[in-house]
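hey can u check if this looks right to u? its 294 residues, i copy pasted from the old doc so theres a chance i mangled smth
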Amino acid sequence: YIALQDKFEDNRDPYKVISLRQREEYSSKGPIHNRRFYFQKYNQVDGKHFWFIDEEFFLDRWYGPAHSGWFDYEDHRRPKNIKIKDQYIKSADLSKEEKYMYLKDIVQKDEIANFMEQDYHTNYIKDLEYLSFFDMIDNIDFVIDMYAGDTSDDEDGSNTRKVLLCLSNLAIFTIRSLSRDSNKKNKFSRSIEGSDWIIENSMPDISPQTAIVFWDSFQGAEIKLTRKYKLDPNYDLNQLRSTLNRKRLEWLGTEGKTMKEILDSNNPYHDHPTIKNPESHLNWDIKQGRVIKD
């Protein structure tokens, strides 16, 4: 969920932020209520992994605030002498080499990009091949708030960055906070090899100005329900052992179906005995290279 909050620091005027929070159903220690950290440990794999939201959450949960005035507030700490459009870097405007250069300051070299918590409650995990963000660079899009820090102490805010990362082939988003302020380095933060930046391990918050830039950068690209997905014509169905998986893909076909058809109609994407969300199965088929966007 997201919340519009006033933040207070010392005796300064409060400022508005959009806070991102999540009530977790699972963790390494069992059920919990509010997730405290950006990285969280899962027993099934070595190490800790990042918080993310799926595309449905991003579109559905941000739509109301975006149209209810939340993003009209201003964080008064932002730089006043730099135009808003010049405060952000968008991967869509970069060459692949430039994209790689910025990504090196956003993610760790061997950080797993296609880690999905929900996979650990299915049998899918047995077949999952882990990939780094650099392995998936062609499917990574991002927007960087280059001046997300506090300017009230005669700084320009450039020691803090907020980044929206989109893994387009998995239809997920994550927002992370980066800092090169030595005071923010602690046992919970993540260092990035070869970079001055660290990844903060707190759940993120962003300024309203940044929230609207992030929203505008992605929500208007496609309309979710009319988006079409189809069987990759190069995928060999004969390699599948699961009858249910094969039925799903045969129904989808190389002509494809819209998301609305997948969600609303009586089809094999609804036939799993325990996992009833058809999007879970669609996302799995995408991750396995069976299904592509039309």
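DSSP finds six helices and 15 strands in the chain.
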